[in-house]
Amino acid sequence: MSAANHNDIKKSLSIIIKPTSGASYKNFVDIMDELNITKIITAPAIDDSHITDIEKTFMKQNQIL
User: Fold this and answer.
1) What is the pLDDT of residues 5-19, one digit of tens each?
2) DSSP string covering 19-50, please?
3) Cα–Cα distances in Å, from 15 out to 6, 47, 55, 61, 63?
4) Where are the domains positioned within the chain?
């Protein structure tokens, strides 16, 4: 992605993965595979300690959590 955008910081993509207590190792591997398939080469941030109440509410409303 950065090569296609000539390393333009304004066109960069940041990815934060926030696995919940219900996430499995397979879920993590699947998302890493998807990043690889889409050729997103930036290292994702992984943060399972700071899931906000708003994020939890959204996941519950959408039956994700």
Assistant:
1) 666 666 677 888 988
2) --TT--HHHHHHHHHHHHHTT--SPPEE-SS-
3) 19, 11, 15, 23, 22
4) 9-61
